[in-house]
Amino acid sequence: MTTVGTLLRWAAYALVAPALALGPIASRLRVPRRMLAIFIAPRDALAVRATVHSMLAVAVGLVTWFLAFLATVAAVRGAFYPLIAAGDLEHSWGGPTLAGAWAVHALLGIGLLPAWGLLLAGLGVVQVRLTRRLLGRDGPWWPLPVSLLLTVGGVLLFISWLHQI
Fold first, then answer.
1. Rounded Cα distance, 76 and 148, in Å
2. Distance of alpha carbon 131 from alpha carbon 33, whole angstroms
3. Cα(19)–Cα(38) distance, integer angstroms
4. How many CA atoms, within 13 angstroms, populate the side-chain half-sphere of residue 62?
5. What DSSP element (H or E) covers 23?
6. What is the pLDDT along the chain (165 residues), one digit of tens a residue?
7. Which residues contact residue 129 at a Cβ distance below 8 angstroms, ignoring those fewer than 6 apart?
8. Which residues, including other chains, have CB under 8 Å from residue 58's CB and lie 6 or more apart?
């Protein structure tokens, strides 16, 4: 059974992975062992693989940080809805009263934090599997196309977000 602490470690790894991807290969292999108790046996001749890993891990890491930012914005706006965005209560979720709008926004903003945490933990799994595939001796094939899809999806999400603010 997965514990909350384990999920938090995976989510934390997802957030530190982009910085690791810019550092030495030894750190990229050591941190998963220390944070998650996952040993990755290093592969020989890593120059090209390390460069590909850096590019993909940083790209997935940027998506991770953007999603963490969106989760934070949603939680803060939900908790402090009357102070931030309570201009038009008539057309607001939970409106037309302030109490109803605040309750709905707080419930959604704060209530969805566990889902955001699971999403970040899943991105941590992608980061570890990507490291294992490119820098380790073994690893599944799926992290490469998933990382590319996450990158493209993250760019599209960011562009959509920019157009709505």
1. 31
2. 12
3. 18
4. 17
5. none
6. 468 888 999 999 999 999 999 999 989 999 999 999 999 988 887 789 999 999 999 999 999 999 999 999 989 988 887 777 656 666 666 667 777 778 888 888 899 999 999 999 999 999 999 999 999 988 899 999 999 999 999 999 999 999 987
7. 139, 140, 142, 143
8. 18, 21, 22
Q: Are 105 and 77 in contact (CB under 8 A)?
A: yes
**For the chain, how many helices (H) and strands (E)?**
7, 0
Paired tokens of 118 = 């699971």
Distance CA 54, CA 31 (A): 15
CA distances from 75 to 42, 60, 69, 109, 117 (A): 40, 23, 10, 4, 12
CB–CB of 131/32 below 8 Å?
Answer: yes
| Phi, psi angle pair for 38, to nearest 5° | -115, 115
pTM of the model: 0.88
Peptide bond before residue 24 is cis, with ω within 30 degrees of 0: no
Collapsing DSSP states into helix, strand and coil, what is residue 136? strand
Q: Is 42 helix (H, G, I), strand (E, B) or coil?
A: strand
